[in-house]
Design a protein that fits this description.
The protein is 54% helix and 12% strand. By secondary structure, it is of the alpha/beta class. Strands 2-1-3-4 form a four-stranded parallel beta sheet, with helices on both faces. β1, α1 (17-32) and β2 form a beta-alpha-beta unit. α2 (41-54) packs antiparallel against α3 (57-81) and α3 (57-81) runs parallel beside α4. The chain is globular. 19% of the residues are buried.
Length: 139
């Protein structure tokens, strides 16, 4: 049996309750329906952040430092392991973390796909959909 292509899903949608439901209930299933294995950075580090935010004081700070290091290193490895990167480009400007993930994947030569469901104009000029540099790397 042939392994499914691995696609890293770059997006800021895990940060809020309002967007998390869309991410887990609609976007993840839609991308999986394309016949790929989704490398989900939100799921990879979730338990670390849940534990950190449940703590208080110095323990919370220590656990957040650990969670941040874990998430950064894990996301880097997931991008290295990916056959492609799918990036959510919604917002007035592309999320800075998503932009960093796009840049890192582009530097590795990983194929990139950008998706924008936001109808607002967000480009640097009328001929760009999003930040022109992000658009450049997405091809």
């Amino acid at each position: 049996m042939r392994a499914l292509p691995k696609v890293y899903l770059a997006s800021p949608l895990g940060f809020t309750v309002a967007t998390r439901g869309y991410y887990t209930g609609s976007l993840l299933p839609a991308v999986r329906a394309l016949g790929v294995e989704v490398l989900d950075p939100w799921a990879a580090a979730e338990e670390h952040f849940v534990a950190a935010f449940a703590a208080t004081g110095d323990e919370r700070d220590r656990l957040l430092d650990e969670a941040n290091r874990f998430a950064g290193a894990t996301n880097e490895q997931l991008i290295r392991d990916a056959d492609a990167l799918f990036a959510v480009l919604d917002g007035n400007d592309v999320d800075s973390g998503t932009a960093a993930e796009i840049g890192f994947a582009a530097a590795l030569g990983t194929p990139l796909v950008g998706w924008r469901g936001d109808l607002r104009q967000a480009g640097d000029n009328p001929r760009t959909v999003v930040n022109l540099q992000v658009e450049h790397f997405l091809g």
